[in-house]
Amino acid sequence: MAAGFFGYFFSAKKVTVQILHYLIYYFSTSSTIMRKQLLFALMLIAAAPAFAQTTVQRDPQIEQMVNAVSADSLQSYIKTLVSFGTRSTLSTQTDPKKGIGAARNWVLSKFNEFGKQAGGRLSAIIDTTTLPADGKRVDAALVLGNVVATLKGTDPNDDRIFLISGHLDSRRSNVMDKTGDAPGANDDGSGTAAVIECARVMSKFSFPATIIFIAVSGEEQGLLGAAYMANKLKKENAHLEAVLNNDIMGSNNSSETNIIDNTRIRVFSEGLPAYETEKTAANIRQLGLENDGKSRQLARYVKEIGERYVDNLQVVMVYRNDRFLRGGDHTPYVMNGFAAVRITEMNENYYHQHQDVRVEKGIQYGDLTEFMDFEYLRKNTAMNVASLANLSKSPSMPQHVTVDVKQLDNYTVLNWEKPKSGNVKGFYVLMRETTSAVWQRKIFTTATTIRLPYSKDNYFFAVQSLSEDGNEGLAVVPAVGR
Fold first, then answer.
1. 165, 195 contact by CB (below 8 A)
2. What is the pTM of this model?
3. Of all residues in the chain, what percent are helix, strand and coil, respectively (each to 5)?
4. Neighbouring C-alpha atoms within 13 Å toward the C-beta of 227
5. How do residues 328-337 score in pLDDT, each as one tens digit?
6. pLDDT tens for residues 68-111?
7. Which CATH number fits domain 399-481: 3.30.70.580, 3.30.465.10, 3.30.470.20, 2.60.40.10?
8. Alpha-carbon distances, residue 337 vs 122, 165, 234, 235, 429 (angstroms)
9. Among the CATH numbers 3.20.20.70, 3.40.630.10, 3.40.50.300, 3.30.9.100, which is that of 60-393?
10. Among 80, 256, 447, 457, which is most buried by a count of CB atoms within 10 Å?
11. Is the dihedral of CA 369, 374, 376, 377 positive or negative?
């Protein structure tokens, strides 16, 4: 009788009042041995929820990087950036202490400093181009300069590039004001500081793939620096797999609504790819893949990996390329066919964006350091570190992923080929219901084909490569195979 009772008890997973009454009676009338057996069973039941939990495995090396991200370092970077007075793209490039020229020289010096600990793998330049006046936000011929640091990958067979970006320039209420103070602590001192800190932490480690850290100019004048970099990489046919653009990510409160929240960060991603041809768009519609473009897959990846490594942080996916009727530096990459997302704080404060420093009706305006939350910025930067590191340590994507549609059935057969580079431990086959925002299930296999008892009508599937250390790459949605 005891064995049958225990079997029921374990399967029920909940203790009802009636069962508790039975336990009390059984305990009072049983022998000593049976009481010990009962106590042991109860101990197992109490521990059952712990055993049922899925343990998330963290790569010790990535965890080390995440723990190395420093709020104090981020604060010091932003204080220095603010000290340049204005970082308007139109401001002076010759003053050693003021303006965009002094700011980008300082960022270059930080990258070069970090290069000394990278064994020659990190190199940095100011990549310049000359732009003519455009009659809009560039009033005279302009030398545009992006500060670019490249951490070269160690695998000669791995040509993948992962890029993290923030914009160095700041602005006043009048975007053409090139002389007045524009502190730009959060917009986008926060994103620039995150890029610098990622370079500091990650340059101490090596990765099979290449990572680019870039502080761009000209964002406030029309995404000029990002457009220059995106077009350049496109012309070079660079294997750029992911772009993390960080813009306004270091303040925890909103204007008007006064919401305070330093536990959530937004990641924006496009739905239908802007660069797709009409034929490809028709294929997306036919297969129902409006929610599965490259940028959307990258957003899911950032959410999963960011939340895996950073405690007390929820990554909120927003199904828009950017905020309502607004734009950012990831967009030129998206327009060139690259996977790119924008990372931005959960609640923006418009008293501290695009505002001259002043007090008006008791409200302090201006993008000042005092309105920053550096612990929040630390978590958001650590999320970037974790995502970049996991991507760069992963094998490249599986090739020629297809779903078999030769016959109508309630199974799903997926086939793929091994990636071009990386040491592959195996693959994850991902599943989610058609209404789910995120992947709900991962099935590990060492094979390059799998037959699943789940209908392709009811689920979306994808495949990602897995390294020996457990680092998964970006998910690949299958094409139709016959």
1. yes
2. 0.88
3. 35, 25, 40
4. 12
5. 999 999 999 9
6. 999 999 999 999 999 999 999 999 999 999 999 999 999 999 99
7. 2.60.40.10
8. 27, 17, 9, 12, 25
9. 3.40.630.10
10. 80
11. positive
pLDDT tier, 37 (very low <50, low <70, confident <90, very high otherwise): low
Rounded CA-CA distance 129/144 in Å is 5
Among the listed ranges 17-26, 108-117, 243-252, 351-360, which one has the minimum average pLDDT value?
17-26
424/226 Cα distance (integer angstroms): 34
Residue 91: DSSP 8-state:
S
In angstroms, rounded to a whole number, what is the distance separating the alpha carbons of residues 57 and 309?
Answer: 9
Listed by start position, the domains of the chain span: 2-52, 60-393, 399-481
The size of the chain, in residues, is 482
Tens digits of per-residue pLDDT, 282-300?
A: 888 888 888 899 999 999 9
Report the DSSP beta bridge partners of residue 427.
445, 465
- Supply the pLDDT for residue 15: 38
Instruction: Give me the phi and psi of 225, to 5 degrees please.
Output: -65, -40
Which token pair is 164?
A: 């993290």
